Amino acid sequence: MLISKKQFSEYYHSYYRQLCVHALHFMSDADEAEDVVQETFVNLWDKRELLEAIKSVKAYLYTAVRNNCLTRIRDAKPTTSLDKLSGEEFLTEDEQMERAEMEARVWKMIDELPERRREIFLMAKRDGMRYKDIAGQTGLTVKTVENHVLRAMQSLRAKDIKAYLFFFA
Amino acid sequence: MTDNNRDIDERIRFVARHYKPNVFDPRKGWEKIQKQMAPERKRRKLPLFYSAAAAVALLLVVTVFYFTSNIERELIAKADNTLYVLPDSSRIEMQQGAELKYDKNFGKTERRVSMLGEISFAVARNEGKPFIVSTPGAQIRVLGTEFTALADDAETRLSVTSGKVLFTPGRPVIPLLCTAGMSVHYTAGTENIKVNSPGSSMEINGKKQSLVFNNSQLKDVSLVLSNFYDVQIELPEEESALTFTSSFAQKSVVEIVNIINLTLDTHLVIRL
User: Fold this and answer.
1) Domain ranges in chain A?
2) What is the fold, at CATH topology level, of the domain defined by A113-169?
3) pLDDT tens column, B11-24
4) Mean pLDDT value of segment B254-272
5) Nearest to A103 by CA among B68, B63, B21, B64
6) Res. B35 pLDDT band, cuts 50 70 90
7) Which residues on neighbouring strands pair with residue B119, listed in sequence order?
8) CB distance B224 to B253 below 8 Å
9) What is the reported pTM?
10) What is the largest CA-CA distance in chain A?
11) A41-56: per-residue pLDDT in tens?
């Protein structure tokens, strides 16, 4: 029995973001990472008769995304050393999944930050700008900038810590 | 905790470094991927459970907002008709605010989840690993496939779409085998259990010590009596499908069994 589009959509929506972040560890570019994940899902849809034989669809997707990333890297720059990927090898498959799930959550939480706070947070953490320079550019005081960044970090951490309370409680 | 904190900070740093707005959005990605997906050759007829909310659910993003950790995972539905696939490929459909938890050992020897709110389950068949749903007041052990449970601290409701489900309220402890078309409404505070089956119903109340049988089969009646009064009741096989209608309040099991035997000319025997 072939998997229905609806069932496929469930897999897609459940794993899409975490697979994108997983790919990001190989591709270092969000658009490319997203591209690989889309391609992986299209391939899976074309070969969906195989789905029945796959024990864990999630594990399959993680491996497929990883392989597709490596293929792309190899094809793009045949001389690229895979050394920079060596860090990946220290993580087990489960750890890679856990990491991607956590990062996918953080990604979504950044999406959900109030716009102003997100902007300032990204200037500091993504662009590496000093609070003083952010203040200069935004017309805010250094104190306010610092506050925004701390609050953003707090909310990103806080929601995550909640997940751990289930077994510490 | 410090290790976790450090790990979280590192994850935040990694994400922040690569963050772009409007990417990694499953809703947008899904819209885009549609064009590249070859159409389904033929539509398989989906069971009612799936088709009911499918149209809406496909449009609604899967907004299960879930927290993971080494030990336990908790899903909270942010919208109605939220779909999720459990690791054993059982499917659930959660209504807004519904919560489901399972731990790391899910699927090792058994599939155990706990829940609140309203959730429909389509449980993947696996005889070797029973699927067990705990609500604050009761336990539902799944022997077959599809059912919906609705639970809060005070009440648990169950309705079975197909297959068999063993429903065990916390008090009085009466394991009730529920088949397709049956529903149970259990209120923990009053210790009241209502069971509706196609063509029959019963109501059991632990506080009032009352029992109501309406067109119930004797095998079900004797099962309830034996658990309610903690005795063994023997029922001749050929009498088990006879039906019985009556209500009792604060009667002893001996009186009830006598009344049944007199009314139906049956041969129930109590073994103490």
Assistant:
1) 1-89, 113-169
2) Arc Repressor Mutant, subunit A (1.10.10)
3) 899 999 999 988 99
4) 88
5) B68
6) confident
7) B94, B149
8) no
9) 0.46
10) 62
11) 999 888 888 777 777 8
Confidence (pLDDT) at A12: 92
SS3 at position B166: strand
Tokens describing residue A164? 């751990």
B267 token code pair: 């041969």
Distance between CA atoms of residues B174 and B206, nearest Å:
11
Domains A1-89 and A113-169 share a fold: no
Which residue type is seen at A10? E
B24-37+46-195 is classed CATH 2.60.120.1440 = yes
Q: What is the pLDDT of residue A19?
A: 96
Q: Which ranges constitute the DSSP H helices of B39-174? A: 48-59
Whether residues A10 and B18 touch (CB distance < 8 A) is answered with no
Quick one: pLDDT at residue B42? 45
Residue of A nearest to B35 (CA): A42
| Ranges of each domain in chain B | 24-37+46-195, 199-272
Closest residue by Cα to residue A105 from A60, A155, A169: A155
* Class at the top of the CATH hierarchy for domain B199-272: alpha beta
Contact (Cβ atoms closer than 8 angstroms) between residue A34 and residue B82: no
Q: Please list, in sequence order, all residues whose beta carbon lies within 8 angstroms of the beta carbon of residue A80, skipping any fewer than 6 positions away.
A: A73, A74
The CA distance from B269 to B272, in Å, is: 10
Q: Is there a contact between B11 and A168 (Cβ–Cβ < 8 Å)?
A: no
| SS3 assignment, position B177 | strand
- Smallest CA-to-CA distance from A99 within A32, A46, A7, A25 is with A25
In A, which residues are within 8 Å of B87 by CB distance? 56, 58
Q: CA of B6, closest CA in chain A: separation in Å? A: 10
Strand-strand pairing, B138-142 and B164-169: antiparallel
Cα separation, B6 vs B13, whole angstroms: 10
Closest among A157, A103, A14, A168 to B71, alpha carbons compared: A168
| A contact residues 23-42, partner B, Cβ 8 Å cutoff | 24, 28-31, 33-34, 37-38, 41-42
Contact A38 B8 (CB under 8 A): no
Tell me if domain B24-37+46-195 and domain B199-272 are identical in fold: no
Nearest to A61 by CA among A10, A114, A108: A10
Farthest-apart Cα atoms in chain B, separation: 81
List the single residue in A with minimal CA-CA distance to B54: A6
Spatial CB neighbours of B34, under 8 Å, sequence gap ≥ 6:
none
A1-89: CATH, from 2.60.40, 1.10.10, 2.30.29, 1.10.1740: 1.10.1740
User: What is the per-residue pLDDT for B212?
Assistant: 94
